[in-house]
Amino acid sequence: MTDPNAIQASELDQLPDRDPEETAEWQASLDAVAKAAGPHRAAYLMRRTLERAEGNGIALPKLLETDYVNTIPTAAEPSAPGDEEMERKITAWNRWNAAAMVTRGSKYGVGGHIATFASAAWLYETGFNHFFKGKEADGSGDQLYIQGHASPGIYARAFLDGRLDEQQLDNFRRESGGNGLPSYPHPRRLPWLWEFPTVSMGLGPLSAIYQARFNRYLTARGIKDVSDSHVWAFLGDGEMDEPESTAALALASREGLDNLTFVINCNLQRLDGPVRANFKIVQELEAQFRGAGWNVVKSLWGNAWDALFRLDTTGALVRRLREVPDAQVQTYQTRDAAYIRQDFFGKDPALVEMAKLLSDDKILECFHLSRGGHEARKVYAAYKAAVEFKGAPTVILAQTVKGHTLGEGFASKNANHQMKKLTVDEFKTMRDLLELPIKDSDFVDGVVPYGHPGADSPEVRYLQERRAALGGPAPARRVHPVAPLPAPAEKAFASFDKGSGTQNVATTMAFVRLIKDLVRDKETGKRWVPIVPDEARTFGMESLFPSLGIYSPKGQTYEPVDRDQLMYYKEAQNGQILNEGITEAGSMADFIAASTAYATHGEAMIPFYIFYSMFGWQRTADQMWQLGDQLGRGFLVGATAGRTTLTGEGLQHADGHSPVIAATNPAALTYDPAFAYEVATIVRDGIRRMYGEAAPGEDPNVFYYLTVYNEPLPQPAKPSGPGIDEGIVKGLYRFNTAESAGLSPAANAPRIQLLGSGTAIHWVLKAQRMLAEEWGVASDVWSATSWTELRRDALEADAGLLRGEERVPYVRQALHGAEGPVLAVSDYMRQVPDQIAQWVEQDWSSLGADGFGLSDTREGARRHFGVDAESVVVAALAQLARRGEVKATAVKEAREKYGL
Known about the structure:
Number of strands: 20
Structural class: alpha/beta
Helix content: 40-55%
Distance between the termini: 81 Å
């Protein structure tokens, strides 16, 4: 009897089988092959059949891994142009000088890395000789994200090219004298050479993807045609463990970024040992990238392996290569032929027979030296395949040996990342291996010499001719002379000066209204780049959707569900908004690409990135440092800011510390504006400084961080009188006095100065009235738009004293003579206002929202943290009581009256 609960296998297949008999025949054939020729033969046939199906465009799930061999067989390699022998000599000089500069610097204890470039030399040299377009090429040239630890090799090439001299090489990692070289790629430290800071590992690959995407954005919007630019990102296999390294792989394939190539130097080692000791990192990365939709090119084995593969008539060699873990491959690099015969070949009878046909020298050549990443022809073939592939980005997985050519003491040693120098004998061995014309007598007093064939040598002429043909030196950063952007029409800013009357407006909404006016500006409107991580509706930006459009390379292939509404969801190929989904990291990478377009592409773009303030600096502060390192310009906007203002959301959303983190970044100008007119004034001045005519001594290579709030409140008119705009920009101005507020204090009333920033100024203004009406205390209210800028100005004044310059800090000038003590209040931890305490001549006290956030109403949260108006009144009375200006009992009375 048939089990009614039994399910036939055919019922599990949702695809109908129109010919079960034919299907059974195919399955029987597979069974027969497995039985007659073994499972390896059956697997081989299945793999080849699937590859043929994929190649013919038959819709099947892709193979995630291919065999552990080169994607491009030797017979299919294209002929590389140029003089291979000349390129070998150039690479030899660069290998030598990279090792020499680090070794010479080791006597100063400054460190350096030798082994990384030693493994990757041909990956760079092949690109420099044949692929990487310079800044004089069409468009903007290529963008190169150099692996940070390989920087000595790039410096060595610049030395050979005449762009650096021996003194600069000797000052590697010693910059304070003014003629040194930074340890890693750093545009702020060496701005004519480096475009992209990459040594905070993981940020390079993420930024490279969004740079390639932004290039497409610029072209699609008609700003500049950069379709000839290619983005190259050089990465380490260990670096791919960083989550940022793979965070945007799907974006790159989804948008078909065939202007992007990752080159992953698979030397199988990270900083302390093997990347995947018991596994295979190349296969893992291949599956990851192929699964994400990338084109994958593997360059694993050099020409010496060709003879071994020809002997592999059973597939035993390929199977063995696939099963040996990475740590064992590393061990083979350091062991003799007998060990390799036993451990590698001895595992399979077919390989035992193969090994009998191989000399010890052949085995050592293959296992010690011959890797796909160490041979110019293999690398050229991989690069050519990458730039010619269309429809998807390419990743090249190039296998190398870490410490290659540096001798047995370096190659594949676990500790080689921390090894900073070679001995004189090791250098002499390296010289002989590289066939360099350096004499023993050149080692004076045991110091390794730099090597240079001469400025007019065939090597240097060849190098320079190749670079000239490709558009000039690389890497290089060029800031092309760009006329300052014209200032937007004053009307856009002046409209905020009159206030909102009886209408309640949050400063977040005020900022969005300002942007809506600025993007309409005929001169500069197209240069704004709105960036938002899937929270546009939270910030009231949905009105920008139909007018600006959301950038999508496919446009809009569907009818939006809200098409009949005024503010419908509109995507367009030339859309201006970058709506990145739920990824602050991706949005920041967008911002970095846009904010540095003035240098990368010679086109000034004005990005603003608006985000939950809690999820900006806390989550992506490393990228904000990258932004500063790369000399980016633009506006970061922390919306729904403050610890007590985002009602109900709780501690995960309650930001009480972003200005503290922002204050640590020298390139960030941090503002906490209270009113709409302050927002407008700060943005106007930011546009002037970054994109217009910067004042003498002003650095335009800064970015602004503005905190704005979601609490709708009446927006006052800008106070009249001199110095208001200056005070807003510098960080402090007097908003009112007790008299100008109409509070009519008594002539001898005690007085206090109340400083508030952001939304806190509203509690301060309420407290000002309560103090006057209920306690007879006069108070003046100051708007502190930037505690951080006040502190920086004061620090600069202090530094000037050491140089014999006398200057009073602005905060002391502003508050000079103000009567009474000072009480500062913000919606952030007290550390934020306390930044300026030491430069305030009056008695100082502060209130802030320290501790974790909590879910509650705004009123409840403010009472909890002791920053509401009533708490401000009690704190003010306590400060005055300590000075004997009010009775001590008044403090207790106030606490009881307000229920504190």
